[in-house]
């Protein structure tokens, strides 16, 4: 409904009006590139020789007849018994929520730190301060960020998160796998319009990246 003028969806039942599909991103991306200057664009799930997403693109034409380019993208249909494996995880009450610094800067710092340690400590408080820290037997390195700002978050049920009433200077922290953080940062080809980090002390780090109409969430569990 957010993307199409007409939308028709028929799931297996009224209470399960969904279809879960697995698709190779590169295949879908190549098909959508032909639709950049399209007059009209249609996606349809078909099942002739195998399940496919049929992408039909109507292109501008100098004549009265239309030019239509069709792509059939093979997809895997995920059975309903596996749907719970793909549902969005619930976000636990966090101790600190903070806006992230420029991701390119953060990526550069993490890339240097990964040569020194397999883990990194992310700590932040409610005064807009965040530290990236590695500690080994030989070296301790910390990068400080200030004046990042803290978003006014509340949990989905309207209750205040556990950050309410917290000492603004008190740091919440989590030690995570530095390679997982590096992969997250390396995958961001376009700077998001907003990026923030929620920390559940010593349990999990939850990253939220907003790219215009797309919201990406990443969960990295803390190391023991």
Automatic annotation (TrEMBL):
Primary location recorded for the protein, binned into one broad class: nucleus
GO CC terms: checkpoint clamp complex; nucleolus; site of double-strand break
Gene3D superfamilies, sorted: 3.70.10.10
Domain of life: Eukaryota
Keywords noted in UniProt: Nucleus
One of the protein's GO biological processes: meiotic DNA integrity checkpoint signaling
InterPro entries listed in its UniProt record: HUS1, HUS1/Mec3
Subcellular location(s) per record: Nucleus
Keyword presence, Iron: no
Family: Belongs to the HUS1 family.
Name under which the protein is recorded: Checkpoint protein HUS1
Organism listed in the record: Cuculus canorus (Common cuckoo)
